[in-house]
């Protein structure tokens, strides 16, 4: 290559396009009329050799034949966690609506708006899917219990205020059905009973800050019964009945020396 200008950079894109091109031998240094040329392996599987200097060509960064995406277009990304969560929430909704016995992969897929195969991909068995949905419901119940605890604390644990909070809670038909679904699952599947007991045990603990532990347990059991009443009658007990029952239970205790400070 003596006598004349050194050759321009050589582009070999045969690996990316399947088209034939000049042979390029691998190696950190190749002489293209000037020693120590540099190589880049770019994302389109294209090998580029460039010379330093004024006539150097920039390395290719994309295949020019590949169309640009429309302006403002957002590249879709797979979201496995998001899809799995949608499936769980869809299954939970169906359990609340019609119970776990009617749950099927097909119904869940339709509710979640995902392919049927996605439900079996993330949950190999219907039992696994049902358990995941019930665990999700138990977490929702626990979150609701935390909110209820804040409301009771704001009212100072006064029985009338507690009864009013329970009345609003029991007026939520979705919440009532959620509680019932967890209890029903615990009856038929002993392994899930700890999930069903979260509400009763948690409510007992919350109320124990304002009355004796025995009284707190009695109120929690009463609210469980009131939950079934609301489920069967499509309406909660009236506020007066709730207030009288809660007040009587919170103030009735064999521990006459009990006080919040004695806990």
TrEMBL record:
Spans annotated as Disordered: 1-31, 52-82
Name of the molecule in the record: TetR family transcriptional regulator
Taxonomy, superkingdom: Bacteria
Pfam family, one: TetR_C_31
Keyword Zinc: no
GO molecular function: DNA-binding transcription factor activity; transcription cis-regulatory region binding
Chain ranges of the HTH tetR-type domain: 81-141
Signal peptide span: none
Keyword DNA-binding: yes
DNA-binding residue intervals: 104-123
Keyword terms of this UniProt record: DNA-binding
InterPro entries, per the entry: Homeodomain-like_sf, HTH-type_TetR-like_transc_reg, HTH_TetR, Tet_transcr_reg_TetR-rel_C_sf, TetR_C_31
